[in-house]
Structure formats: structure tokens, C-alpha cells
Amino acid sequence: MLSGFKDFILRGNIVTMAVGLAVGSAFTAVVTGFSTAFITPLIGMATRSTGDFSTASFSAEGVTFPYGKFIGAAIAFVITAAVLYFLVVVPMMKVQTRFDRRDKNKPVDIKAALRDCPRCYSQIPGIASRCSFCTSEIEPDPRALEMAGLPAPR
To answer: Largest Cα–Cα distance of the chain, in whole Å?
Structure first.
């Protein structure tokens, strides 16, 4: 039982996820500190208020609502989301498009595009004109023929 747990913990994806969570929490702490130390005072200077939202609150019928903590958390969230988007997501999308372009130049496997036979529902190549299972004649898929560089049947 413990050997299974050890195998689960020592898998590569679990360790990678744990490292990602640790780095993510450290990054969140840095962003929260940055927004508390710099962004919030700048907003305070712009609005001519104190700039410290952490103690801001209002009361209604004896209940206190500390909305300042929410504003600080919202600012930290927006900064975190923007940094992750512009420093992680956008570069990864560019890398993926580069790899996608490389894949388009590779030769196409004409048997990889599969479809179902309309008579027996078995999987057959898209360029097939006869089902290999029930031997019924079928119109080849024009897109598969185009990808394979084959002429349309007569």
C-alpha cells in the first residue's frame, strides 16, 4: 500500500505540479506585496485619499463591510492575471504556432484521416472508395483526397 503511494508521489507530473504551486504562491505573494506597496498608494495619490484600502469599510445597520480588503485582492488578481497572460500565455501561443507551421510541411499520412462506413459503421480511411469490412462502394472524402494529393474518382 505504501509503495503505491510512493509511486504516486514520485511521478513526474505530481512533482511538477507541486513545484508549480509553490512558485505560483510565491509569485502571488510578490504581486500582493507589489500592489500593496506601490499600486495602492499610487491610486491613493491619484484619488487624493489615503491610498491604504485595507482598513476601508462602511457600516449598514450595525454590520461592518471591509470592502478595502476586496479592492486590494482585486488589484492583486488583475496584476497577476495580466502578468501571467503577457509573460506565459502569449509566448506559449507563439511557440505553438511555430510548431504548427512545422507540422504543415510534413508529409500527410493518407490513412490517418478515418471516417465511418455509412453501411456497417466500421472505421475506414477517408480516401477509400470501398469498405474493407462490408465491401460496399463508397464515395471518397474530397478533403482527404485533396490532402493526399489524389485526383477525384471518375
So the answer is: 85
Residue of 38, 28, 115, 42 lying closest to 73 (CA atoms)? 28
| DSSP-derived secondary structure for 36-98 | IIIIHHHHHHHHTS-S--TT--EEETTEEE-HHHHHHHHHHHHHHHHHHIIIIIHHHHHHHHH
Q: pLDDT per residue over 92-109, tens digit each?
A: 888 888 877 665 666 666
Cα-Cα-Cα-Cα dihedral sign, residues 107, 111, 112, 118: positive
Is there a contact between 35 and 75 (Cβ–Cβ < 8 Å)?
Answer: yes
Cα(113)–Cα(125) distance, integer angstroms: 6
- Per residue in 60-76, pLDDT (tens digit) is 999 988 887 788 788 88
Within 8 A by CB and 6+ apart from 52, the residues are 40, 41, 44, 68
Whole-number Cα distances in Å, 90 to 22, 61, 85: 22, 48, 6
Q: Identify which of 118, 112, 142 has the alpha carbon closest to the alpha carbon of residue 130.
A: 118
pTM: 0.48
